[in-house]
Automatic annotation (TrEMBL):
Matches recorded under InterPro entries: Calcineurin-like_PHP, DNA_Repair-Maintenance_Comp, Metallo-depent_PP-like
Protein name per the record: Metallophosphoesterase
Residue intervals of the Calcineurin-like phosphoesterase domain: 1-197
Protein's organism: Thermosediminibacter oceani (strain ATCC BAA-1034 / DSM 16646 / JW/IW-1228P)
One Pfam family cited in the UniProt record for this chain: Metallophos
GO molecular function ontology, one term from the record: hydrolase activity
Amino acid sequence: MRFLFFTDTHIRGTIPQNRKDNFLETLFKKIREVVDIAHEEAVDVVLHGGDIFDRPDVSPSLIREFVVLIRDLKAPIYAVAGNHDIYGQNPATINRTMLGVLDSIGIVKLINPGEKIFFNDNGIKIQLTGQHYYYGLDKEGKEDGYCIKKDPGVNFAVHVVHGMLLDKPFFTGVSYTLIEDVLKTEADLTLCGHYHAGFGIINIQDKYFVNPGSLLRIDSSLSELTRIPGVILFDITNEGIKIKKRALKCALPGQEVFDRQKLEADSFREKKLAEFIQGINSAGEYNFTNIFNIIDELAKKQNLSAEVVKEALRRIGEVQETISKKDGEDLEVS
């Protein structure tokens, strides 16, 4: 059975300041090539690692463009929700998002936590599970979102998760989970999104961990100049799992896509911001850079219950949804 995996398309109507190409044209050209690859490779199932959209309330016109591009796919699309697909990092808001609409009408099939989807191919039983992004997914010592169990009789298990799974330690202050900490999973193949640079294909203890990187390059980093986006193709047969990465032909070299002057300026600003944050951290009082980290710090310092944290996240989600709707009204008026 053949699968295609890609992640972090971040479909959006706004144009990143550091791009010098026709952003939307590039975006849809890439998705069109993914569809073509799925047909060319006779793929049975397409998997998306989350952040299909760059915001939960992306415009209906962009939804239409996306649906037009993928409606000819012969293979079904299964996906998990990324942090950009939902409000307040809360998967409970999915039914109020555009991704939730696509799921409800069967365009994209969301793999919800606890759900197990089974495929039978020539006597081989394959189990598919998924984990949406949620606040605290990569909290230290918490690997529940990555570790799954195989059902009896399952030959191979595939798990898709939108989380900060990494092969090596990252920056201080950023929550992440190391592959070495989730080796107890019974998944034969763990597919990840969220970390845009990706770490490729890693095999440890006969278990595969894969992140090809985001399909869309939007980060203001010099490393994106050399990275060529692509998709993952893998076959599951009696002989095991065979995986390969396929680069997109339509993906232009970084220097043709990014404005290098803006990238260098952004890099300088990021460096100064890092120094500023380091200065704050060295004062020993604070260690956060966004509202969710603030909640985490307060929860620790004040020993807040899980119910209180959950309610805070729910209210933040409502505020974000209200702000998004107001932005949409302003755009309509203008």
